[in-house]
Amino acid sequence: MKRQARSTGFTIVELLMALSIAAVLLAAIAASVHATLMSYDENEKVSLATQAGRWALQRMMSDVRTAAAVDVYSGSMTIVPAENRGIDQIEYYYTNGILYYKQTVGTETTVEPIVGDREVKLTAFTLNAQMGTNQEGLSCTARVKARLTFTVGDETLSMTASSAPRRNLDL
């Protein structure tokens, strides 16, 4: 009897095994890419919150340092700038998850949101003031501490800054 020559190639079983191994590898790669993209998005949101918070706190504390007077209320702070700035009054206030900056020059008032939007959710703005007396014996703000609390995904991020009005440093 003559032997039949076997044709070269893959059997159906071998092809199915190769396809199933390739499918498992592709599923693992897809899961890894998805997790990487989710982590990137979360890190980007944390970075946005951190950047917005640092900028807002730096701006607030700069205004406090150069202020002629500072009044702190629940959820807001009113600043009377030094005479040479050309601004009559500055106010920072928190409402509905947004921190606003309000500036009054003469009779004109401008308001702009500085922190809080869909990407960066500001959940709390707290202010504490330490009182003292100035050279004339009058009560004044000696130190202001501001705290911003953000929600990024399931995480909470808090940032704190404090400053003293330079005009009251003799306290």
Globally, the shape reads rod-shaped
How many beta strands in the DSSP annotation? Answer: 8
| Domain module tally | 1
Strand order of the largest sheet: 1-2-3-4-5
Tally of individual helices: 1
Query: Beta-strand level of the residues, as a percent range?
Result: 35-45%
Average predicted local confidence, pLDDT: 86
Helix content: 25-40%
The helix/strand class is alpha+beta
End-to-end gap? 114 Å
- Cα gyration radius (Å): 30 Å
What does this molecule look like?
The protein is an alpha+beta fold and 171 residues long. The chain has one domain (12-168). Helices cover 32% and strands 42% of the residues. It contains one helix and eight strands. A hairpin with a 2-residue loop joins strand 1 (67-73) and strand 2. 17% of the residues are buried. The mean pLDDT is 86.
